[in-house]
What we know:
Largest sheet: none
Radius of gyration: 17 Å
Distance between the termini: 41 Å
Strand content: under 5%
Number of helices: 3
Number of domains: 1
Order of helices and strands: HHH
Helix content: over 70%
Amino acid sequence: MKSFTEGLRLALAEGTQNPTENKINTLNNRMLLNNAQMNIYCSGKKNTDKQMCESL
């Protein structure tokens, strides 16, 4: 029950953010994910890693 309540609280908090704030958070999350992927693939030695790194 506690996890349901926590999830509901988070959903309500997200729903009260303004659209600009949501867009900023989405972009920040995408940038973090992209950086993490670059750290993984751009340090790789495989040809597929190099291709993925270039596409990022």
